[in-house]
Specification:
The chain is of the alpha/beta class. Helices cover 44% and strands 16% of the residues. The protein has 15 helices and 13 strands. A seven-stranded mixed sheet has the order 3-4-2-1-5-6-7, with helices on both faces. A six-stranded parallel sheet has the order 10-9-8-11-12-13, sandwiched between helices. The chain starts with a strand and ends with a helix.
C-alpha cells in the first residue's frame, strides 16, 4: 500500500553528514516503492552550500527553511539543552504550519532524530496521524535524570521507535522505552555503487602509484578523531595517509600535512572521487572518540574491499568484526600499532581484505530499508 510520508529532520542534503547520506538512500528507496514524500528541514546548518528553499522532483517535495547556521550546531553539542532549544521550537513551528495546510495529504510522520521526535509527538496528537522515529545517535542518557524521563515519555507515545543498531536499543531500554515499540534497523549502501576494484590500478588513477594507503573520511571535528590519525601519520613515515572531509579542523590538518610527504590532505571531494579512494585504500580508519551511532563510512569501505580499524565506541563494534578489521581503544599508540602490524603482515591484511565485500553483502544491503518501511504500516 502506497503511503504519503512526512519526513521531519533538522539535517538534509546538500548538508553533508552521515544522517544526510542515509536520508538520501532512504528517500531514493521509498521513491522506487512508489511512496510520496514531503521533507521539512532547515537550510544547510553545518555545510557552507546553497540549497533551494523549495525543491520538487517526482514523488517528492522538500521544504528548506532558513535558520541560524555557521556551525552553531557543533558549538552547542556539549550543551544538550541549548542544542534542543536551538533546533526544536522552530522545527515544530514549521512542521505545524505545514500540517495545518496539508494534513489531509499525509498518512504517516517520520521523525529523524531526537529533536524531530518531540515535534512528531505533538503532531500525532493534533492531527491523529501514525508517527514513528528513527535514532541516529547514542545519546548517553542518564536513566534517572529528568531529561531522560521526558525523552522516554515522548518516545513511548509514538507508534514505533527505530533504534539504529543494538547499542541504541539497549540505551533506550535503560530509560524505559518499551521493547515492544522498538524495531532495530541497520544502514545500507548500494552494492552496485560501492564495490571492490584493483587497488594498484585505482591508486595509479589517483596518482598514488603503489603506495600503501590508510584512509580517513569524516567530518573534521574533534570527536571524529582525525587528529589521532594525523599523529599516527607523523610517526609512520613508510605508510601513506589521506584525509577526506570538511569542518572546523580542516585548516589545522591541512597545515600539518604540508610538512610530511606521506600525508595527503584531500579535503572535500565529490562522491565519484570518494569511491575511488575507498577502493584504493589498504586500510580505512574510524577513530571516533564518542559513542558513534553507526559509522556509515565503515560499510562503504567494506563494500569497496577495504578493511576497517575502528574505535570501540557506540555501534562500531556491532558493525565491524575480526573477519574484516579491528576494534580498539581510540588512542594514537593503538592505531599506530594496528596499522603498522597490518603494513608489516601483508598476508594477514590480504585475508581480511578478501572477507570485506562478502561480509558487507550479507549484512548491509538495501534489504535493511524494508525494515524502516514496515514502520509506516499499522
Amino acid at each position: 500500500m502506497i503511503k504519503r510520508i512526512l519526513h521531519i529532520t533538522p539535517f538534509f542534503s546538500p548538508n553533508i553528514g552521515g544522517v544526510e547520506s542515509h536520508l538520501d538512500d532512504l528517500c531514493a528507496f521509498l521513491k522506487k516503492q512508489g511512496h510520496y514524500q514531503y521533507v521539512i528541514t532547515f537550510n544547510p546548518l553545518t555545510t557552507q552550500v546553497e540549497a533551494p528553499v523549495i525543491e520538487k522532483s517526482r514523488g517528492m517535495k522538500i521544504y528548506r527553511y532558513w535558520w541560524l547556521g555557521d556551525n552553531l550546531f557543533h558549538k552547542l553539542e556539549p550543551y544538550p539543552f541549548l542544542e534542543f532549544l536551538y533546533l526544536t521550537p522552530y522545527l515544530f513551528f514549521r512542521s505545524l504550519i505545514f500540517m495545518i495546510r496539508n494534513h489531509r495529504k499525509v498518512d504517516v510522520i517520520h521523525a529523524h532524530g531526537l529533536n524531530a521526535a518531540f515535534t512528531a509527538k505533538f503532531l500525532k496528537v493534533i492531527f491523529k496521524k501514525r508517527a514513528i522515529m528513527s535514532t541516529y545517535a547514542i545519546y548517553n542518557f542518564k536513566p534517572d535524570s529528568f531529561f531522560s524521563k521526558i525523552v522516554a515519555w515522548v518516545f513511548s507515545s509514538l507508534d514505533e521507535i527505530q533504534p539504529l543498531a543494538k547499542s541504541s536499543e539497549k540505551e533506550l531500554l535503560k530509560i524505559g522505552v518499551p521493547e515492544e515499540k522498538m524495531r532495530v534497523y541497520y544502514l545500507w549502501v548500494n552494492e552496485q555503487e560501492f564495490k571492490p576494484a584493483d587497488k594498484k590500478e585505482t591508486k595509479c588513477e589517483l596518482g598514488l602509484k603503489s603506495k600503501f594507503l590508510v584512509l580517513f573520511v569524516g567530518r573534521l571535528i574533534p570527536i571524529k578523531g582525525a587528529e589521532i590519525i594525523m599523529e599516527v601519520a607523523k610517526r609512520l613515515s613508510k605508510v601513506n595517509f589521506a584525509f577526506i572531509g570538511d569542518g572546523p579542523l580542516a585548516d589545522k590538518l591541512k597545515k600539518e600535512a604540508r610538512g610530511f610527504s606521506n600525508i595527503k590532505f584531500v579535503g572535500r571531494v565529490e562522491r565519484e572521487l570518494l569511491k575511488k579512494y575507498y577502493q584504493a585504500a589498504d586500510i580505512f580508519v574510524l577513530p571516533s572518540t564518542y559513542q558513534e551511532a553507526f559509522g556509515k563510512v565503515a560499510i562503504e569501505a567494506l563494500f569497496s574491499g577495504t578493511p576497517v580499524i575502528g574505535a570501540n565506541r557506540g555501534a562500531i563494534p556491532d558493525v565491524i568484526s575480526s573477519q574484516v578489521g579491528r576494534v580498539i581503544e581510540p588512542t594514537v599508540d593503538n592505531f599506530r600499532r594496528e596499522i603498522e602490524y597490518l603494513f608489516q603482515h601483508p598476508s594477514t591484511l590480504a585475508k581480511i581484505t578478501r572477507n570485506c565485500f562478502p561480509f558487507a553483502l550479507r549484512r548491509y544491503t538495501v534489504k535493511n530499508a524494508k525494515i524502516i518501511e514496515m514502520g509506516y504500516y499499522e
